[in-house]
Amino acid sequence: MKVWLSCDAAARALGADEVADRLAEEAAARGIALEIKRVGARGMAWLEPLLEVERDGVRHAFGPMRAGDVAAFFDGRLEGHGPTEDIPFFARQTRLTFARVGRIVPLSLDEYEAHGGLAGLRAALAEPGRIVQQVIDSGLRGRGGAGFPTGIKWQTVAEAEADRKYIVCNADEGDSGTFADRMLMEGDPFSLIEGMAIAGVAVGATTGYIYLRSEYPDAIATLTRALDIAREAGLLGQGLLGSPHAFDIELRMGAGAYVCGEETALLNSLEGKRGVVRAKPPLPALKGFFGKPTVVNNVLSLATVPVIFEKGAEHYASLGIGRSRGTMPIQIAGNVARGGLFEAGFGLPLRTLVEDIAGGTRSGRPVKAVQVGGPLGAYFAPDQFDTPFGYEEFDAAGGLIGHAGIVVFDDSADMARMARFAFEFCAAESCGKCTPCRIGSVRGVETIDRLIAGEDVRGLIEDLCETLREGSLCALGGFTPYPVMSALERFPDDFAPAKEAAQ
After folding, report:
1. Quick one: which H or E segment has residue 367?
2. C-alpha 362: how far from its chain's center?
3. To which H or E segment does residue 342 belong?
4. What is the pLDDT of residue 498?
5. Which residue from 378, 368, 307 is spatially nearest to 343, judged by alpha carbons?
6. Are 109-317 and 320-410 in the same CATH fold?
7. Is it true that domain 415-502 has CATH number 3.40.50.460?
8. Residue ranges covered by each domain of the chain
9. Which residues contact 293 (CB under 8 A, 6 or more apart)?
10. What pLDDT does residue 501 have?
11. DSSP for 397-430, written as a single string
């Protein structure tokens, strides 16, 4: 008998290891030969720990599993959810970046190849001179927040004259409500390694770095072992898969500063310096790691690259809307009935994601607001929920997609407090390099307290936000006005002093 059980950090936190131990004990007691395959998460967080068993070649889902459910599972008394991939939350997805996560043992290179792994790298190595153009043609844009065209960034680095070039993976996933990078690194680490290798061949870099936050111990352990396996198999090092190209990767851990998710602060930290933002220009694509041309891409951007070469740039570009091409792994969190990772082509209305796919609030109360794009993202009110999930579409609605995390709040949320938190967060996480962010965020907390207390200081808050937006060196200060002003404009009643007094 063979079963698959999540080894994702979230599943382990919910007792997956205890379930695995109990499965082994119960099988031994019953004289059943049992193989437990630990795999990444399928992305349906409300069913974790998720156990799957194969019937007639199809995996069937049981969850959330508890150690106390194991006897009932073996007796056939435990009610399941039917075929895993027929569960509506899963069946409606278009899985490309996450196609293998939850299906394969993360550190099995054989399973990785059996499910399409390395096909992209082999295709890229066959025509290395066309790699950059293929990425441009795919329409892939950075999945880390800014949405800059990945191929254009690669082209800039490829055309730069330098004795050394670098590929840097920004795995410093720090936005609230985001977990896709972690899930990918824990569930399909070779896809990231393969994508970085393709990038190295494309631009002429022989060394790559993964900058991973220290708060992800499971991802650190998985990637460390995956890198060793990749070297042993010739996927990294000299003679990449028997080609004349060389590329290797080092794993570096950050200390957890939110600002190090910004690419120049990350590069400073990677160089052993304090993680403070650099002024731009020069861009990292021209003067990045130790002053050399550097590609800095997010985990999801790099892990998506192999798909483009496996299935073709045209296939990838056929998905999405407008200038937002391909799929986006959307992370659904907060007060929702069904949270998790939902990968789909760009274009789904926010309303579909919140009310249909996520099933509304877990509390059963009406949805009041949805924050999209992390702690610096704008709050959307229900009358904006028809906004299609796309970069330009969200920008036109006064928001941003960022790392595609959406956090749902019901009608008990106090949006004045949420706006205050945005200023607080900026003040706590500021690197201190620029005055608008360092000072403006502190003054923002003070000023919003005055507004809540009944003083007419809205104009002052608007001026502060304009200064932060126009004068900050990076997005930490520059994007703080999104949550502040969206809360102020879309939920004015929450800023009324009468409400504060009632509380």
Report:
1. strand 367-372
2. 23
3. strand 340-345
4. 43
5. 307
6. no
7. no
8. 2-91, 109-317, 320-410, 415-502
9. 156, 157, 160, 162, 165, 166, 203, 285, 286, 287
10. 43
11. TT---TT-EEEEEETT--HHHHHHHHHHHHHHH-
Torsion, CA 219, CA 225, CA 229, CA 234, rounded to 10: 70
Whether the predicted pLDDT of 198 surpasses 70: yes
Quick: pLDDT tens for 446-457. 999 999 888 999
3-state secondary structure of 283: coil
Q: Check whether 231 has a pLDDT greater than 50.
A: yes
3 state DSSP class of 2: strand
Residue 153 has pLDDT above 80, yes or no: yes
- pLDDT tens digits for 376-416? 999 999 999 999 999 999 999 999 999 999 999 999 999 99
Spell out the CATH class of 109-317: alpha beta
Question: Between the CA of residue 487 and those of 373, 458, 484, what are the distances in Å?
Answer: 14, 12, 5
Question: Any idea which fold 2-91 has?
Answer: Glutaredoxin (3.40.30)
pTM of the model: 0.95
Architecture of domain 320-410: Roll (3.10)
Beta carbons within 8 Å of 324's beta carbon, 6+ residues apart = 139, 141, 147, 346, 347, 389, 390, 391, 392, 393
Write out pLDDT tens, residues 92-143.
999 999 999 999 999 999 999 999 999 999 999 999 999 999 999 999 999 9
Q: Which residue has the tokens 């045209």?
A: 314
Q: What is the pLDDT of residue 497?
A: 67
Cα 420 from Cα 484, distance rounded (Å): 7
Determine how β-strand 294-298 pairs with β-strand 248-254: unpaired
- Report d(CA 5, CA 117) in Å as an integer: 22
Confidence check: pLDDT of 256 > 90: no
Question: Nearest Cα to 169, choosing from 242, 247, 239, 232?
Answer: 247
pLDDT at 496: 79
Q: What is the pLDDT of residues 344-382, one digit of tens each?
A: 999 999 999 999 999 999 999 999 999 999 999 999 999
**Amino acid in position 306:** P
What are phi and psi for residue 18, nearest 5 degrees?
Answer: -65, -40
∠ CA 397-402-404, nearest 5°, is: 95
3-state SS string for 114-160: HCCCCHHHHHHHHCHHHHHHHHHHHCCECCCCCCCEHHHHHHHHHHC
Closest CA to 247 of 124, 133, 152: 124
In terms of Cα–Cα distance, which of 399, 385, 327, 334 is closest to 356?
A: 385
In the chain, the amino acid numbered 91 is A
User: What single letter denotes the amino acid at residue 79?
Assistant: E
Residue with tokens 């200023």: 423
Please give the mean pLDDT across all residues of the chain: 95
Q: Which two tokens stand for residue 405?
A: 């995390």
State how far the Cα of 432 lies from the Cα of 47, in Å rounded to an integer. Answer: 42
